[in-house]
Amino acid sequence: MNILVFVKRVADTESRIRIQREARSIVEEGLNFIINPYDEFAVEEALRLREAKGGMVRVISVGREEALIGLRKCLAMGADEAALVRDDAPETYDGLRTARIIARAVERRFPGPDLLLFGKQAVGSDNSQVPSMAAELLGLPQANVVTKLEIEGNTATAFREIEGGMERVVFSLPAVVSAQKGLNEPRYETLKGIMAAKKKAIPVLGLDELGLSADDLSPKVEVTDMEIPPQRQAGKILQGEPADTARELVVLLRNEAKVI
Amino acid sequence: MIAVFIETRDGKIKKASLEALSEARRRADELGLETAALLVGAGLASLASALNPFGPARVVCLENPALGEYSSQGYARVLADFARETPPAAVFFSATAMGKDLAPRVAAGLGAGLASDCTKVGVKDGRLEFTRPIYAGKAFLSLTLNSTPQVVTLRPNVFPLLTPSDGRAEVVQKEAAIPEGLIKGRVAEVLKEQGGEVDVAEADVIVSGGRGLKGPENFSLLRELVALIPRAAVGASRSAVDSGWIGHAHQVGQTGKTVSPNLYIAVGISGAIQHLAGMSSSKVIVAVNKDPEAPIFKVADYGVVGDLFEVVPRLTEEIKKLTSS
């Protein structure tokens, strides 16, 4: 199988987020950047499929030069190749722009994949847009938020999370699949993998090599404001005998908060 | 026109879609526009009357026997075709599993911008302005979309339903064309979680457990409480999920679900930043924890300092008294 995996560099979920309101952007200074956690499930799934069925895994990132660090980690996990599509634009929060870059890069530079794997969303922008958009632009079927994937010949079966249950989706390859937590347990890099990854060259593609028009690249999203929500205030503390505090709490929820 | 995709499951209209239809009506009134409800599938006309109370001028049924089961490709194609012919100023979806799967495909098909998972829609200088959480609610982004249509998904459980009125929508039935060979994937089966539990993303009340529960068996304490409250669900912290005590579908937080129920009860959860991000927009927060210094108390409206194994059963007793009286 020829598998492409798309990974994004994001701020660690333990990060405290600060903003520059005038610039409508996140303050990057002091943040720890990692591979998007959902993308790690996608990388792991690709490696497992390759181990079971043969083929090759190529990991691709769209973004700034710093994304090379994450790509190198994916190589150390066991990916065969990596590539960076260099895009120096700041975060646009516009999935369509990214999806167009990805779709064009696949068509021009990485044609003929059997499977395109993504994380179900990038933590941070939280858009959940790019996998489905890339699928539409490439005319491929999709399964998003997948916790189990089975491939038999040219047919895939995916279980995806929906409200209060799961959907079993059956589709033909090539296809787009986005990974949810629970799909697998990502492996750690091995020392041998880290050493081997250091020696691999990671080609860097420019956006100008993809023949995208200015219109393709102009964001449809215009950010008008960014805010940190007001901190919640600590409320009443109830202490004492469990029976009394439980009774008091129910009275408060009923009469004061009016939520039960 | 603001068009609203109406999601159906088992032949029933989802409440989240009625919320989206209600919000569309409010914003359309401000902009002097009509609203239209879009149903996709087969044999839909009987559902149309249920939408009347929420004020659409039209209910458009995009029908094709091939759309009996959900397929992202088929649904996206007929919705994009409708939008291209019409074209509406905006198309609203609810940010449900189906809406999040479908809206990006529709937007990409139309070359349109998409505002995902919005928690507020306003009108500024005659244009729609959307506000949505980023970093799981650690920050909020406001944005406008410079495309026609503007594609939008609205977070469930945030936008109030309109007070039902006795409007009467014009029902338009359309034969929606699907090119041969377009649909390469479809839903083969829907598997419900046992007991038909309410999903945390849709619940009005969430009772979540963390490491303080000490083991998977003690989630039963929370389930007993949840069973007494309508539209309530069991949630969990990341550490409880990562310990394998409960499935990931229950996880609340930055790598789980971001929720805003009327009432969130955190039991034995210390309040890591990635958990707080996912639940801080709840209307009322209750924390039960032994440790008075736990960060969860900083965001709780009501904090109970005590042993959860003593407090929760008594809380369940009190709720039981309330529901039986």
Question: How would you describe what is shown here?
Answer:
The complex is a heterodimer of chains A (260) and B (325). Chain A is of the alpha/beta class and 260 residues long. Chain A has two domains: 2-217, 3-Layer(aba) Sandwich (Rossmann fold), CATH 3.40.50.620; 230-260, no CATH class. Chain A is built from seven helices and 15 strands. Chain A has a nine-stranded mixed β-sheet with strand order 11-10-9-12-8-1-6-7-13, with helices on both faces. A two-stranded antiparallel ribbon of chain A has the order 2-5. Chain A has a two-stranded antiparallel sheet with strand order 3-4. The longest helix of chain A has 17 residues, at 37-53. By secondary structure, chain B is of the alpha/beta class. Chain B has two domains: 2-175, HUPs (Rossmann fold); 194-324, Rossmann fold (3-Layer(aba) Sandwich). Chain B is built from seven helices and 18 strands. In chain B, the strands form four sheets. In chain B, strands 7-11-6-1-4-5-12 form a seven-stranded parallel β-sheet, with helices on both faces. A five-stranded parallel β-sheet of chain B has the order 15-14-16-17-18. A three-stranded antiparallel β-sheet of chain B has the order 8-9-10. In chain B, strand 14, helix 4 (219-226) and strand 15 form a beta-alpha-beta unit. The longest helix of chain B is centred in the N-terminal third of the chain and has 17 residues, at 15-31. Chain B is elongated and about 60 Å long. The N and C termini of chain B lie far apart (48 Å). The chains are: A alpha/beta (260), B alpha/beta (325). At the A-B interface, helix 3, helix 4, strand 9, strand 10 and strand 11 of A face helix 2, helix 3, strand 7, strand 9 and strand 10 of B.
